[in-house]
Design goal:
- With 449 residues, the chain is an alpha/beta fold.
- The protein has 4 domains: 97 residues, Glutaredoxin; 31 residues; 76 residues, Winged helix-like DNA-binding domain superfamily/Winged helix DNA-binding domain (Arc Repressor Mutant, subunit A, Orthogonal Bundle); 187 residues, Vaccinia Virus protein VP39 (Rossmann fold, 3-Layer(aba) Sandwich), CATH 3.40.50.
- It contains 19 helices and 13 strands.
- The chain has a 7-stranded mixed beta sheet with strand order 9-8-7-10-11-13-12, sandwiched between helices. Strands 2-1-3-4 form a 4-stranded mixed beta sheet, covered by helices on one side. Strands 5-6 form a two-stranded antiparallel sheet.
- It is globular.
- It starts with 5 loop residues before the first strand and ends with a strand.
- The model has no long low-confidence stretch (mean pLDDT 95).
- The chain binds S-adenosylmethionine and FE2/S2 (inorganic) cluster.
- The site of S-adenosylmethionine (SAM) has 18 residues, from helix 13, helix 15 and strand 8.
Length: 449
């Protein structure tokens, strides 16, 4: 069983409303309890836990199988988990009261379930019914919209340590009837829990969606709510070929830069590593936003100083991030339009365009790469970090969707392909360029002067 002593599968299958399944029976709570208990009993590194699809005995859920023994535990609750961990996983003694021994009855239950499932699929197909996965994809906006409304109304903060629908409605100044509907959806999405009419935040919501929690992503996700408004105009944008409205309301800059900073949190160090900094001294970070990339780059290279160019309304936020990082002596800021402001004094070792090229038209990008080339020292490098599409522009999927995000949000932006970047870089005069893949949807183009 190396490298683990045990491998546990927990069925987390979700099924249509009213159909028995492990997820409706509480398998996610069991899974969470298992992770917690393995951690607290010191077995997290010895036991691999995987969630899995239907195991065929759905009336007995939540179901778990523990390998290498192949022990089936059924009808579990989170309260059963400490005993399974201490007795079975630690002391090697199965928990007999929870075990279901595979026998002929179980086999026929599994086969019967599979046959019914296949018959249901065939029946739907014969009746010409839209497949469930396609239907779910089409209606995918519903849960998303419910969460965005909850974020806009700051529901998770209002839920706090717990409250009734009435109490929460009063805090967010909304109608009780509607608040209750929204809270119930959030319970079904596993972001809240409800016991005896009291709603509380599930651990994920408490960590990421409550305002003021150390890892709160609420400010960043309010940007997604702004995007939602733009995406509602997608049909018109496709007809006309450009953004229908690109006006920004008051909160736009803060939530936009918060979203950029949140995205950069997990990525900036990986980008700095992938660039393999080697003695560079001067960096130009065009459209540097929150400063997250300049901060990661100068931290990764002791001799490096960075200069950020961005819009005047963004720079106070940038400066605050630089101040908090204690890097005011190594990162400076300059207000200006990167397409026209003089990029002087030339001789930069590195120019960074992170999440920039997708905002502009091909013509503007050619112009921008020409300017970057002129600003670089001989052998200096240009780093483009963006959603880079493959040659036929149909993958990766997030990059294709991001192109629409630019369609509804900019005059002429798009996601561009590797061959397009190569062509522009060559036309600008760069001697060599290569695509560098890093984990996640963003890739790099690194070109040398
Ligand atoms: C998508 S954000 C990327 C921010 C940052 N580079 C990052 O990757 O997190 C684009 C940034 O470019 C700035 N920006 C947009 N157009 C600009 C222009 N013409 N001149 C200078 N900055 C611009 C925006 O204010 C914003 O900070
Ligand atoms: S849904 Fe879990 S066994 Fe079928």
């Amino acid at each position: 069983m190396e490298p683990f002593r045990h491998h546990i599968f927990v069925c987390t299958q979700e099924k249509a409303e009213g159909v028995p399944c492990c997820s409706a029976a509480g398998s996610f709570q069991v899974l969470n309890a298992l992770h917690r208990e393995l951690g607290s009993q010191g077995l997290a590194d010895d036991v691999q836990v995987s969630s899995c699809g239907c195991l065929g005995i759905c009336d007995s859920g939540p179901v778990m199988i523990v390998y290498p023994e192949g022990t089936w535990y059924t009808k579990l609750t989170p309260n059963d988990v400490p005993e399974i961990v201490s007795s079975h996983l630690k002391a090697g003694k199965k928990v007999i009261r929870l075990e279901r021994i595979p026998d002929a009855d179980m086999k026929s239950e599994v086969l019967d379930h599979r046959n019914k499932y296949l018959a249901m699929l065939k029946g739907k197909d014969a009746a010409g019914v839209l497949p469930d996965d396609l239907n779910d994809m089409i209606r995918g906006f519903m849960p998303s919209r419910a969460i965005l409304t909850a974020l806009e109304l700051d529901v998770f903060t209002a839920v706090g340590k717990g409250g009734t629908a009435q109490q929460i409605a009063a805090k967010i100044q909304a109608a009780v009837r509607a608040t209750e509907m929204l809270l119930n959806v959030l319970v079904s999405l596993k972001l809240l829990e409800k016991h005896d009419g009291i709603y509380t935040n599930a651990p994920t919501a408490a960590r990421f969606l409550v305002e003021g929690s150390p890892d709160s992503a609420r400010a960043a996700q309010l940007h997604t709510a702004n995007l939602w408004r733009r995406w509602s105009k997608l049909t018109d944008a496709v007809r006309t070929g450009t953004a229908v409205e690109s006006g920004h309301d008051n909160g736009w800059v803060n939530s936009f830069i918060a979203a950029m900073d949140h995205g950069a949190r997990g990525r900036a160090r990986a980008v700095a590593q992938a660039v393999e900094l080697n003695g560079e001294r001067r960096m130009l970070d065009l459209g540097g936003g929150s400063g997250a990339y300049s901060i990661a780059f100068v931290k990764a290279a002791t001799a490096l100083h960075s200069e950020i160019v961005d819009m005047p309304e963004v720079l106070p936020i940038t400066q605050e991030h630089i101040r908090q990082a204690g890097l005011g002596d190594r990162i400076s800021t300059r207000a200006g339009d990167m397409l026209s402001v003089p990029l002087e004094p030339a001789g930069y070792d590195l120019v960074l365009l992170s999440a920039i090229c997708h905002m502009f038209s091909p013509e503007e990008n050619r112009q921008l790469l020409d300017r970057a080339y002129a600003a670089l020292a001989p052998h200096g490098r240009l780093v483009i970090s963006d959603f880079i599409l493959d040659a036929d522009k149909t993958s990766p999927r997030f990059g294709t969707l991001f192109a629409l995000n630019m369609l509804v949000g900019t005059r002429a932006g798009a996601s561009y392909s590797e061959p397009e970047y190569e062509q522009w870089l060559k036309a600008a005069g760069f001697a060599a360029s290569k695509r560098v893949r890093i984990p996640g949807p963003v890739n790099l183009m690194i070109a040398t002067k």
